[in-house]
């Protein structure tokens, strides 16, 4: 199972399409490097549909949760917004790569439910 295969089915929080169909995630935005014995660095760059997308943080969260659950190997995960594609990309990059902030976000029932709806495979 490739990293692209895992994330291609994540649904957009607002639209019926997947992130792949909306070209939010692409094969080219996924990088996997070996950093140790059986440990890999997985870097994802995604492009929000609009530069002021309010859901960019949520999309980053969905990518992180889905990969944490589905990657079959030990990994470090770095998720970034493609450079120059969002008005607050620096803040968002910090937020989605901060373990404590991610954990806090997932404790919010509303947010958690939104993430689950996006990452759950359609039946």
UniProtKB/TrEMBL annotation:
UniProt subunit comment: Monomer and homodimer. Component of the CIA complex. Interacts with CIAO1. Interacts with IREB2. Interacts with APAF1.
Keywords recorded for this protein, A-Z: Chromosome partition
One Pfam assignment: FeS_assembly_P
PANTHER family linked to this entry: CYTOSOLIC IRON-SULFUR ASSEMBLY COMPONENT 2A, CYTOSOLIC IRON-SULFUR ASSEMBLY COMPONENT 2B-RELATED
Family membership: Belongs to the MIP18 family.
GO BP terms in the entry: chromosome segregation; protein maturation
InterPro entries in alphabetical order: FSCA_dom_sf (IPR034904), MIP18 (IPR039796), MIP18-like (IPR002744)
Highest taxon in the source lineage: Eukaryota
Tagged with keyword Transmembrane helix: no
Name of the protein in its database record: Cytosolic iron-sulfur assembly component 2A
Domain MIP18 family-like intervals: 3-60
